[in-house]
Amino acid sequence: MAAGEQDPAAARAVPETAPRCRPAREPAARTYARALPIVPVRARGLTIEGADGRRYLDCASGAGTLALGHNHPVVLEAIRKVLDSGAPLQVMDLATPVRDAFVAELLRTLPPGLADRARVRFCGPAGTDAIETAVGLVRAATGRTGTITFAAADPADAAAHAGVDSHADVDVDAGLTGRAVTGPDDARGTPRARLPYPRDYRCPFGLGDQRGAELAARWTESALDDAASDARLPAGMLLEPVQGGGGVAPAPDAWMRRMRQITAERSVPLIVDESDTGVGRTGAFWAVEHSGVTPDVMVLSKAIGGSLPLAVVVHRADLDTGESGAHTAFRGNQLALAAGTATLAHVRENRLAEHAAALGSRILSRLRELAREFPCIGDVRGRGLMAGIELVVPDGDPEPLDERTPADRAAPPARSLHRPGPAAPELAAAVQRECLRRGLIVGLAGRRMNVVRLLPPLTISEEQAAAVLDRLADAVQTVARDHAEQAPSRHRRRPGRDPR
């Protein structure tokens, strides 16, 4: 080797040099690497070790793909078993023992009303592939076009509505396909509708309680029954039990039941996207179990593959028209199926959904205490180990939307009956940066990217959760203090000013 030349092997062994390539090699689109400038080299459970030797607590979990955290032993063993067996790793959708084991374990976990009459359809490995497959399925089954989706949905569900209401500012982990939802068919007049999604905070009707959910349900019912509406007789309704990329917004259970009733009465298939919420994340194995709803179609991805790319559509047998699915080669990845089987079984056998429910409740309680201390936290919400903290401009005490009843005053929900403050994506980004400095990885979500999102693995312990919350609280305190020091007095709220 000539003097001054670098050994190629040595260059490959120094991953910390990788960030130097980013300005020249990375696209202008936002990526996780821009917000999280670390170079992971090892990981186990909740912990990632960077090339610089620092360790981080990972509460992004691969955007929710890592139900058991990084490199869980049962997942690694399942993968090694397939590798050592000499079995083909990719066989399209041919029947194999690995695939049969996955289907059997999946059916064991599904809501009984669906499992008893389910068909399992494999598609491309991404959630957007599964969405397109599900929508194509109900279109073929009903002979209709058009799909009802809901505002602020994950772009994997509704990105194709970008021509109506751009989703360019939604979570960077979301896909941008969704052609089956509207897509090119819109140019040919395909019916479509995006209806209000009920929220306590930033309620589309300005109510912020169960009345908002009731109005959202009535709006949906009216849209379906209005002969002049472009939502009449859609091929299906697509919704998320908790909007993940939309800002970690759980749907009220009563609203979920109304959607099931409304669609059943009109023979409109209900498609529930459990990509973010499935496999124990919300405190039940599937989030629909909280409301007792049995959908006609379930879209499954992310955690379903046990950290490897896998997406599945489960649907009622009578929706199967016999039409072939999308012709993609990546429907039978044996490693992903084995990892997914191991993950499903481990979550079920170790009752990790119950652990997520109990620990998640304590985490949300601690976060709500934090919200009472810092006005820049407008709202705390979530379900199980899926939590969101909405950052707002701390512009004085928000005014009540209405007079509360004595019962309301006895048990007031945290800030849910107040006008939301202006979204503060810059504060959310600052919290994310301060968390990273303290060795904590968190994500951002929401249409304005002002929601700090926590998605720890289901295996997180009480001690680890306490460490996560301590680091997060310290980060919020720093950001709140810096903002207060920098904010000039003229920007403080004057009496009578509407903070929106």
Distance between the termini: 66 Å
Strand order of the largest sheet: 4-12-11-10-7-5-6
Poorly predicted residue ranges = 1-17, 153-191, 396-417, 490-500
Shape: globular
**Class computed from helices, strands and strand pairing:** alpha/beta
Enzyme class: transferase
EC number: 2.6.1.76
Keywords: Aminotransferase, Pyridoxal phosphate, Transferase
Region (Disordered): 1-20, 395-425, 481-500
Descriptive report:
The chain is an alpha/beta fold. The protein folds into 2 domains: about 20-70 and about 350-490, Aspartate Aminotransferase, domain 1 (Alpha-Beta Complex); about 75-350, Aspartate Aminotransferase, domain 2 (3-Layer(aba) Sandwich), CATH 3.40.640.10. It contains 16 helices and 17 strands. The strands form 4 sheets. The protein has a 7-stranded mixed beta sheet, sandwiched between helices. It is globular and about 65 Å long. Mean pLDDT is about 80; it is low at about 1-15, about 155-190, about 395-415 and about 490-500. Its cofactor is pyridoxal 5'-phosphate. Keywords: Aminotransferase, Pyridoxal phosphate, Transferase. GO terms for molecular function: diaminobutyrate-2-oxoglutarate transaminase activity; pyridoxal phosphate binding.
